């Protein structure tokens, strides 16, 4: 619905000779919005699955593709973006996921008490290519303003809300068509997914053999106990139980990563 099909088209065409199209009239906002006016209740994977299935139902296809992004701030000013792309093949009973975790270069949301701060935030974020959302709270009621194209509109809205005694917060708009960085992540994941679909399982020939998990536990060079460092990638088939283990090639870990040597 936000033009995300365009982000997958090139990869699916180049690698698979497939076309990607959006299901007409599909409104995915029902599964939650970044702006906060519709809460997200599903896990990212469940939300992506629900979107893909709904799209397949509307379009009457047996193949579906959906993405789901989440943004969370843990410590300090850093915002982490987790993005997944989920592919369903109903006929083969496949559900494949490609994911990425990035530290977002965009600042997290902040409360503003004058229009100038809002304009400074927008400019720093890369407005207008990168969009911004304004949330206002008044009497515990949350109202969301988005789709600004001009700084002057943003200024007017913030001024109006502050005059109204509302609490005003400005944040980046993470919708793919309003966020070039997120669009790039989805484009990259689309290539990963297309390459994965071009990789058959060597046992049952089902498409989509690829990473399903990681294995931690590179041994500490000093005491040999297992650390949290990733030792291998586990690849698997979405249809049968075939798995392969691909070591990352790190024989030992520096004791700084060891819970015993460096608790
Ligand atoms: Zn150790
Ligand atoms: Zn298989």
List keywords for this structure.
263 residues; alpha+beta; Dna Ligase, domain 1; 3-stranded antiparallel beta sheet; 5 helices
Question: Would you mind describing this structure in some detail?
Answer:
By secondary structure, the chain is of the alpha+beta class. It folds into three domains: 1-106 and 179-198, no CATH class; 110-172, Dna Ligase, domain 1 (2-Layer Sandwich), CATH 3.30.1490; 203-263, no CATH class. It is 27% helix and 28% strand. The chain has five helices and ten strands, in the order ααββββαββαβαβββ. A four-stranded antiparallel sheet has the order 4-7-5-6, with helices on one face. It has a three-stranded antiparallel sheet with strand order 1-2-3, sandwiched between helices. The chain has a three-stranded antiparallel sheet with strand order 8-9-10, with no helix packed on it. β2 (79-89) and β3 form a beta hairpin. α1 (5-16) runs parallel beside α5 (180-197) and α3 (115-125) packs antiparallel against α4 (151-163). The model has no long low-confidence stretch (mean pLDDT 92). It binds zinc ion (2 copies). One zinc ion is lined by residues 201, 203-204, 206, 237, 239-240, 242.
